[in-house]
Specification:
83 residues; alpha+beta; five-stranded antiparallel sheet; 18% strand; globular
Amino acid sequence: MTPKMEAALLAAASADAAGGLVWTGAGWKNPAAPGDYHAGQIVSRLVWTHGFVAEVGPKSGTRQRRVITDKGRAYLAQKEQQH
């Protein structure tokens, strides 16, 4: 995974308590950390290519969310053990 993808995955983990990443029109925002934005293409790869993040809520609009999956949490835990 690229560093940008790992940053987006960490943001999804951080945003978990707030209900996940939120679409803003400019990218995916971490509501737990204002200014923490991630490109739509990067987050889409985490959803469709890796399965580390999942879609929740409506398919479009400002109420759509992206949340970390168990597979994403396992990836982060494995990465943490390696360091």
